[in-house]
Design a protein that fits this description.
Elements: E1 7-14, H1 37-42, E2 51-60, H2 67-81, E3 86-92, H3 98-109, E4 114-118, H4 131-142, E5 149-154, E6 157-160, E7 165-166, E8 175-176, E9 184-187, E10 190-193, E11 220-224, H5 232-239, E12 244-249, H6 257-268, E13 272-277, H7 304-322
Parallel strand pairs: 1-2, 1-3, 3-4, 4-5, 11-12, 12-13
Antiparallel strand pairs: 5-6, 6-9, 7-8, 9-10
Helix pairs in contact: 3-7, 5-6
Bound molecules: succinic acid (SIN).
Length: 323
């Protein structure tokens, strides 16, 4: 945190953290994205010595996250971070696509100040809601010395944007960091670091690379390599104008023979392809020797969903450079 910067901005985008159910005992049959972010901020004890602002950037169930909302969110975060008095931005979000938004924001902004995303597994009206504690923990991390870049704080655990993934559909502790492990834990409002603060994965593309006309953003699909796979899926995607395909490959990034030929045809005709693994943990490991020239590029440790965001970002950057 920069000394002298004492304003924290909380941006709301919806999610279960802003959800409302008919009864306090209902943790499942609720409506996400209902309560305003100002009321979420108003429901917790805020640390002294800071000024708090809140802004509703969107109000959606994050399963329906879209490029227009991503762009608006990135622009609002960039605008707030550019204010010298702003120390950090906290974003309330749904859990379902949190990992995609976190990765997207890191690749677009790679901010020097902290941007902390948080969420909840139970609606705000729940008798045992987890949102207030998660929001308080996110604020604690946002004001911790040394914090920077985009991170996710849920269930007292701090995850790097490059590693975070939703691993459970119901548990309060629904996120993991795979092999990388969490950055730290939040205990009684204090961050306990478990490893170095992560850096990377490279220079941000900047909000200028995000065209306002989101209908023109590159279409990138995920194809899973499975038993009995049908090669027509890849050909149909290419013919439909998809600019990129991520293969959620088996094991160590290995692709079914039935998909290999259509993927290579697509690559030869200008489609970008990344090879990730459908394994829940670990990374695609290439042989020690330099990969052959025609090797399909590896997505390393990125999940298929994050690899898709990475490919969208690379294609946007390429277009921006070509313009
Ligand atoms: C959402 O992702 O917006 C709804 C589900 C959740 O936040 O847990």
């Amino acid at each position: 945190m920069q000394s002298g910067a004492r304003t924290l901005v909380v941006l709301g985008t919806g999610g279960t953290i802003a959800g409302r159910a008919e009864s306090p005992g209902d943790n499942v049959g609720y409506r996400a994205a209902t309560l305003p972010v100002a009321s979420l901020v108003g429901s917790i004890d805020l640390p002294g010595g800071f000024l708090f602002e809140s802004e509703q950037v969107a109000q959606l169930d994050s399963k329906d996250m879209d490029f227009a909302t991503w762009r608006r969110l990135a622009l609002r975060i960039a605008a707030h971070l550019a204010r010298p008095e702003v120390a950090a931005v906290v974003v309330t979000h749904g859990t379902d696509t949190l990992e995609e938004t976190a990765y997207f924001l890191q690749r677009v902004l790679a901010p020097a100040k902290p941007v902390v995303l948080t969420a909840a597994m139970r609606p705000a009206t729940s008798r045992l809601a987890d949102g207030p504690q998660n929001l308080a923990d996110a604020i604690a991390v946002a004001t911790s010395p040394g914090a920077h870049g985009v991170v996710v704080v849920v269930a007292g655990t701090v995850h790097a944007s490059l590693a975070v993934r939703k691993v459970h559909p119901y548990r309060l502790d629904a996120f993991g960091s795979g092999d990388a492990g969490p950055i730290g834990r939040v205990e009684e409002g204090r961050l306990r670091r478990l490893r170095d603060w992560p850096t990377g994965p490279g220079a941000p593309i900047g909000v200028e690379a995000l065209p306002e006309d989101v209908a023109g953003w590159p279409a990138v699909a995920i194809v899973t390599s499975v038993a009995g796979v049908d090669a027509r899926s890849v050909r149909a995607l290419f013919q439909a104008g998809f600019a990129g395909i991520v293969v959620a490959a088996t094991g160590n990034g290995r692709i079914h023979a039935g998909l290999e030929a259509p993927l290579r045809e697509a690559i030869a005709r200008g489609c970008r392809v990344l090879r990730s693994t459908r394994c829940l943990d670990g990374t695609v490991i290439d042989a020690a020797a330099a990969p052959p020239e025609d090797a399909i590029a590896s997505a390393g440790a990125l999940t298929p969903q994050q690899a898709r965001v990475e490919l969208i970002v690379r294609l946007l950057e390429q277009r921006c450079g070509a313009a």
